[in-house]
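Section 5.1 Outputs to date
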Amino acid sequence: MGKLKSNTLLSSVSGWYLVLSTLFYYSAVYDGLELVSYLCFYGLPLIYILVHYQDALSLLRLCFRNCLKYYLLSIVIMALLSIVLPYVSGTNDYSYFTIRILQIAKESIKLLFLVMLFIRYISPQGDIKLFMRYFVYSTCIYILGTMIIICIPPLRELLLTLNKADANVIRLAHKATYVTRFGWCGFSGFTYTLKCSLAVMMMCFFMYEERFKQFWENCVLLFFCMLGNLFYGRVGIIVSGIFFLILLTGFWLKERKLAYRLLVMIGSGMGAIAVLALCSQAARAWLYWAFQSFVNLFTTGSMETTSSASLEKMYFMPEWKTLLIGDARYMMPKGRYYMGTDVGLLRPILFGGILFQALRYSTLIISLRQLKADWQFSPTWLVYLSIILFLIFEMKGEVIAPVISIIFALAVLAAYAKETAEKK
């Protein structure tokens, strides 16, 4: 597969790399094919990294020439603490390591593989914007996959079986308000709305930076990513709405004509969704779930939903000892989080204390700082939007582990691109 031929944004896209990106950003492990899946998603990347170890070492040395070495150090310290703290305290709860640290490690392997392929075959100069677009395109393909699954109910039943869905997931998958929260990876909730929000953030950045260039195509991609948030999670809807308003305000102040075009785009999209709702009871149930906060505001005067009400009860002030050093507990029996909280601001504190949480956040701060320092396009907008995204999502669940490897990959590419340009 070569590059896709057209005069549009896709003219710079390599078909084979897009397929790989989609599979590695949205990896599925199916029942009976676990070994094959793990070999494909982790074994093959590791083999490639080992074969091209000089390229991997080159990127590692690059990190040690800038502040990204502190990112790597933070991950190592977090990994050690997630083993030492449960051992010393006697809780023997190593679930933070087996869940979060290994999640970062597995995602990092896939991202390193994608970055190395990108530099070797797609963009030797390290075009970071093109790398971001591959993530956006991959996200759009996953959303398209959800739309296909919605239209073919037997396919959803087959995927539920292949994904080894438990009784609760099967129950939710058949509720009218949850029918869109499903993709080829199985039940798609918080992590998937997080990735869609990341894609929305990137598209808002592209549109503001590129202005009139490929405006309508960028609009379509932005709308598609926002549609993904309507599918997978209400917190993503809030974040997407904030990003859209920021972009609209930026256009209103700089390019009024683009602001009007953006309003036409969102108006057309909302009109299409409204027509769909008029024609389908299932669509009405989905939209009621997606916009329940606003429906409640007009009907009861409160934006509270069942999700926000239950989340509010999960906020509490830990005891001073827990706040300082944590309880070295992360999971409880039967798969519940320690103290029953889903709040991303609290879980790591309950496990390792406020310093452990600060160490966790340092990975994001270091990556964003290096990205801002090295990227020649001065991505101040992107940095601010990233902070907004992480702050809001952390009020709902944990954000760092699922996507920090993507932010780190962008920072590595920015440093690589800068050094490559300086050598010329």
